[in-house]
Specification:
The complex is a heterodimer of chains A (about 210) and B (about 750).
Chain A: E1 2-4, H1 15-25, E2 40-41, E3 44-48, E4 55-61, E5 64-70, H2 76-83, E6 102-105, E7 108-111, E8 124-126, H3 139-146, H4 156-169, H5 175-181, H6 192-206
Parallel strand pairs in A: 4-8
Antiparallel strand pairs in A: 2-3, 4-5, 6-7, 6-8
Helix pairs in contact in A: 3-6
Chain B: E1 2-11, E2 14-23, H1 48-53, E3 68-74, E4 80-86, H2 88-92, E5 96-101, E6 108-110, E7 116-122, H3 125-134, E8 136-141, H4 148-151, E9 182-183, E10 186-194, H5 198-206, E11 210-218, E12 221-222, E13 230-237, E14 240-245, H6 250-260, E15 268-271, H7 286-299, E16 303-306, H8 309-315, E17 318-319, E18 322-330, E19 336-345, H9 356-361, E20 367-375, H10 390-408, H11 412-418, H12 423-436, E21 452-460, E22 463-464, E23 472-478, E24 483-486, H13 496-508, E25 515-518, H14 535-562, E26 569-572, E27 575-578, E28 581-587, H15 588-592, E29 599-605, E30 617-618, E31 621-629, E32 635-645, H16 652-671, E33 702-708, E34 710-711, H17 730-742, H18 753-760
Parallel strand pairs in B: 3-16, 14-15, 19-20, 24-25, 32-33
Antiparallel strand pairs in B: 1-2, 1-34, 3-7, 4-6, 4-8, 5-7, 9-10, 10-20, 11-18, 12-17, 13-14, 13-16, 18-19, 21-31, 22-30, 23-24, 23-29, 26-27, 27-28, 31-32
Helix pairs in contact in B: 10-11, 10-17, 13-14, 16-17
Classes of the chains: A alpha+beta (about 210), B alpha+beta (about 750).
Bound molecules: FE2/S2 (inorganic) cluster (2 copies).
């Protein structure tokens, strides 16, 4: 039996091709090549049409505005890492399963591999690089070091963002709250017990206990 | 030239004096009486700030000017011959710079889904991915086999039609490579016998007062490091290659690249500043490394080549499966009299599935017969995975021991006590049992009346101390007093970077913040591979010796300043003083400013231990408490008490983290993880992190770990490793706890709800 190239028949849905599909079909129109179009589709002013050549958007990351041209299919994590050189945010699975790419968007945890960059426009994005303020580490960062809540450190930025967001919304979490807050963050090195300790300690510090 | 020293050796506070001859310019080995400032304490990671701020650059984060992205076209067939490859469409795709075949000569065979066929380099990752799909590959598809039991059958499709040679990596136990017969898909058996032949062993077991028999199965587990495998390769010119690699051995990887590209090793530089975990799967240049370097050569641009998660599961290595036939015989007192174990396991197209070591090394048993065979299947190659063979073997052996204990009406801990005389092990039992509250356990099995049943169990760890020699540690002291320690060793997350600084600070009487560590670069001299738990034991004696030599030099510089001889100078708290007279002192920097020429460098090599290469066991025991929901079959591990040893502990803070990690990986292995291959297509059905289940925050037991100090005086630091030992017993302990809770023995990993319910039915 001889078969030609069946690589595209791999099992499983590739998240990227799925997103690509969404990116284009939701625009709902054939698009011109190369150029950049912002048009109003059939009377619905809320629908923005973007060509595959890309659109210029403004992203607010860690309080700073960046204007850049992105393709509709580009994910937020790709743009953060490859365009803005904010490589602190990691990719572990690229499909929403590991939390390595966790950032905070308008106060919510977001797996940035599942958000298109164009959808992040107009939102406030916080990444690991933005936690340090005037040379002072965030209490959660300090606590992660003190309690050794990291080993290889690859999951750490995502783990810290989830933890920080927990404390933003709940300054006095209990152990169950902490476990719940980082349940989407996988750590293959198995540092969880110290993550729990570190976050609980940071919350106490926050309150000056 | 040697000198005589007397040191205190022993376990914890049970010390004895030992006389020892050590080389004249060696420091006196740290012993059980030494009160040290850093060593044995808790020091936070030197790279902590870099890692919590996102500043730490992993290979995955490398962005070089003009960098291209590499991607493989991989076989969608588990067995096929690649007849032709047509690159024309791919070459025309946007951004594509080069396309190359994996093997120069056509046709070539592929033996698992995901095997590399051709590589492409393009300007962006998306473009590379798109282009890889456009490479047209003509396959002649063959019959295949992906299940262990099927592959063992006589008429099974042959995975290999050639004799396979075992290739061991730095993560494997040294000296285990072997040449074995190969019939069909079965390679082996590798036979180990102690005072019994295959014919005799059964009757010996049968003649025992009590016997335990079981057929145990363990699954394939993928390493699933959070940072996938990969490199960035860059040719500096025609003859010089620099590779940023997510590797567990900068040095071996350099050697591998040098061999494959026929370069002097000196022309290859491998850099691993930080890496996102490895667990035994990341050694050498690997397929993507070779392809990256080839693509880089033809495009004259740096090439970034990292696997994605699916590729990682397919081709990034795994812990082989096992099928273990175990027969144990013991006398009335519970003493083991005969052990028989026959195992088959599949490392896919690779070798190394044996689980015999725990059987051979955990309990002294006069009569033993072990056979280990690899079964080839059309699946990605197994690789060393945190204590190769051991979690599998312990899962079987320690359930067997438990079974013997229950049959004899003995406490499971008591039967272990009766089968060991190892001082460290016995001490660990004592500490662990006390912390766990073992004596309060209900000796009855399945004693809880409700649907949720609690149970406790325990299992032993067994691992070995080994190390390599020759690693050079270099220390440079500069005129401003700054101190640099340099070696090529990589920190895969264990915290070796910090341990190096601790040792230097300790020896030189400096604050740790004054020691700068340069590691993770093959240009800094060979360091041990981070595999087999040998990093700390391998490198620390060389580092301490280098620090000691630096101290001698600084003594020489300081002596004239005090008008005494060098031997009279001591260093403490960042100052030099005359020994016995701390009243007048000079700052370290003041002394350093007098270094002739403004700096000096000393190099010390890792030498053989004082006692040569003695076989030493690293022990360890874990106790587990579980809750089994007998209505749903869900198992929750509530608590694990672990007691381990690793010689003299260096940094207890990071050591604890490693133990936590070992236990948590063990829980994950015991209950969740399972690489599933579709028998009809050979494809992995869960090549991701949502269906390939890994323990997460909601699955973590309460962990209480203790490390006991073992001072052996075998070298100047007495350090040994903990990475492997900590994960060895966990699955076995959990299985025993499930039995205690429910009265059902689970012979098959992972112990998922369906298996629990079936066993209870
Ligand atoms: S990379 Fe986004 S969740 Fe894994
Ligand atoms: S620290 Fe390595 S994955 Fe979490």
């Amino acid at each position: 039996m001889t078969k030609k190239n069946q690589l595209t028949k791999e099992s499983g849905l590739s998240r990227r091709s799925f997103l690509k599909g969404v990116g284009l079909t939701s625009a709902g129109l054939a698009v011109t090549s190369g150029g950049e179009i912002f048009a109003e589709a059939s009377g619905d002013a809320s629908v923005k049409i973007i060509s595959p050549g890309g659109a210029t958007i403004t992203l607010e990351v860690n309080g700073k505005k960046h204007q850049l041209k992105v393709e509709p299919r580009e994910t937020l994590v790709e743009v953060l890492r490859d365009r803005l050189h904010l490589t602190g945010t990691k990719i572990g699975c690229d499909r929403g399963a590991c939390g390595a790419c966790t950032v905070i968007v308008d106060g919510k945890n977001v797996t940035s591999c599942l958000m298109l960059a164009i959808d992040a426009e107009g939102k406030s994005i916080e990444t690991i690089e933005g936690l340090e303020k005037e040379g002072e580490l965030h209490p959660v960062q300090k606590s992660f070091i003190e309690y050794d809540a990291l080993q290889c450190g690859f999951c750490t930025p995502g783990m810290i963002m989830s933890s920080k967001n927990l404390l933003d919304h709940n300054p006095s979490p209990n152990l169950a709250d902490v476990k719940h807050a980082v349940r989407g963050n996988l750590c293959r090195c198995g540092t969880y017990p110290k993550v729990f300790q570190a976050v609980l300690a940071a919350s106490k510090q926050n309150k000056g206990e | 030239m040697t000198k005589d020293v007397r040191i205190q050796v022993g376990v914890a506070d049970n010390l004895q004096e030992m006389a020892l001859k050590v080389p004249k310019n060696d420091p006196r080995p740290w012993d059980g009486n030494d009160q040290l400032k850093y060593i044995g304490g808790r020091t936070t990671r030197l790279d902590g700030v870099a890692k919590v701020t996102g500043a730490a650059k992993y290979t995955f984060d490398m962005r070089l000017p003009g960098m291209l992205y590499g991607k493989f076209a991989r076989s969608p067939y588990p067995a096929a011959v690649v007849k032709s490859i047509d690159y024309s469409k791919a070459l025309k795709a946007p951004g594509v710079k080069a396309v190359l075949p994996m093997q120069e000569k056509l046709p070539f065979s592929v033996r698992f889904v995901g095997q590399e066929v051709a590589g492409v380099a393009a300007k962006t990752l998306n473009q590379a991915e798109e282009a890889a799909k456009l490479i047209e590959i003509e396959y002649e598809v063959k019959n295949f086999t992906v299940k262990l039991d099927d592959a063992m059958k006589e008429n099974a499709p042959l995975v290999w039609d050639v004799q396979v040679k075992e290739e061991a990596s730095a993560g494997d136990i040294p000296g285990q490579e072997n040449t074995l017969p190969q019939v069909g898909n079965i390679r082996g058996p590798n036979v180990s016998a102690r005072n019994a032949t295959k014919e005799e062993i059964d009757s010996l077991v049968n003649a025992s007062y009590v016997t335990s028999e079981g057929v145990y199965r363990t699954q394939v587990q993928t390493h699933s490091a959070m940072e996938t495998h990969g490199v960035v390769a860059k040719w500096d010119d025609d003859k010089h290659l620099t590779v940023w690699a997510s590797t567990q051995s900068t040095f071996r990887t350099r050697k591998d690249f040098a061999e494959r590209f026929e370069l002097p090793e000196a022309n290859v530089r491998v850099i691993t500043e930080h890496m996102g975990g490895g667990f035994g799967a990341k050694f050498g240049a690997d397929t993507f490394g070779v392809m990256a370097a080839k693509l880089s050569k033809v495009t004259q641009a740096p090439v970034f080549f990292m696997l994605d998660r699916k590729e990682e599961h397919w081709a990034g290595g795994n812990r082989p499966s096992s099928l273990q036939n175990v027969r144990l015989g013991a006398n009335k007192e519970g003493k083991l009299e005969a052990i028989k174990m026959l195992c088959h396991g599949s490392a896919g197209i690779g070798t190394g599935s044996g689980t015999g070591n725990p059987f051979k090394n955990l309990y002294p048993c006069e009569k033993l017969y072990v056979e280990e065979s690899d079964v080839f299947t059309n699946a990605g190659m197994g690789r060393a995975f945190r204590a190769p063979g051991h979690p599998q073997g312990i899962f079987a052996l320690e359930q067997g021991m438990d079974d013997l204990a229950y049959q004899l009406g003995l406490d499971p801990l008591e039967i272990r006590r009766r089968n060991t005389s190892h001082e460290v092990r016995l001490k660990e039992y004592e500490i662990g049992a006390k912390k766990f509250g073992w004596s309060q356990r209900n000796p009855k099995v399945a004693a809880d009346s409700g649907p949720i049943k609690r149970g406790v169990g325990m299992a032993n760890s067994v691992w070995y101390y080994f190390y390599g020699t020759g690693f050079p540690a270099t220390i440079q002291v500069n005129s401003d007093g700054s101190v640099e320690i340099m070696n090529g060793v990589q920190d895969i997350g264990t915290g070796i970077r910090t341990v190096l600084a601790m040792i230097v600070a300790e020896e030189l009487g400096l604050d740790i913040s004054e020691v700068k560590v340069k590691i993770g670069d093959s240009d800094l001299g060979a360091g041990p591979a981070s595999g087999g738990s040998q990093t700390t034991g391998g490198i620390t004696p060389a580092v301490r010796k280098a620090a000691y030599l630096a101290k001698q030099k600084m003594r020489e510089v300081a002596a004239p300043l005090f008008g005494v001889s060098p031997e009279q100078i001591g260093f403490e708290n960042g100052r030099a003083h005359v020994l016995g007279d701390p009243s007048t002192s000079l700052g370290w920097q003041q002394v350093a400013s007098r270094i002739p020429g403004g700096q000096f460098k000393v190099v010390a090599e890792r030498k053989k231990d004082y006692f040569g290469n003695q076989f030493q066991i690293i022990c360890g025991v874990q106790f587990a408490e579980v809750e089994v929901d007998t209505q749903t079959g869900v198992v929750k591990v509530k608590r694990v008490v672990a007691v381990h040893d690793c010689g003299r502990p260096m940094n207890r803070l990071t050591l604890e983290s490693q133990i936590n990690g070992g236990i948590i990986q063990g829980v994950s292995y015991a209950l969740f993880e399972n690489r599933l291959l579709d028998r009809n297509t050979g494809h992995m059905v869960n090549p991701n992190l949502e269906q390939y289940k890994i323990a997460g925050s909601m699955d973590i037991p309460e962990i209480d770990s203790t490390v006991i100090d073992v001072f052996k005086g075998h070298n100047s630091t007495s350090a040994m490793g903990i990475g492997e030992p900590a994960t060895v017993p966990t699955a076995g302990a959990i299985a025993n706890a499930i039995y205690h809770a429910t009265g059902a023995r689970i012979y098959d990993l992972p112990m998922t709800p369906d298996k629990i319910l079936a066993a209870l039915a």
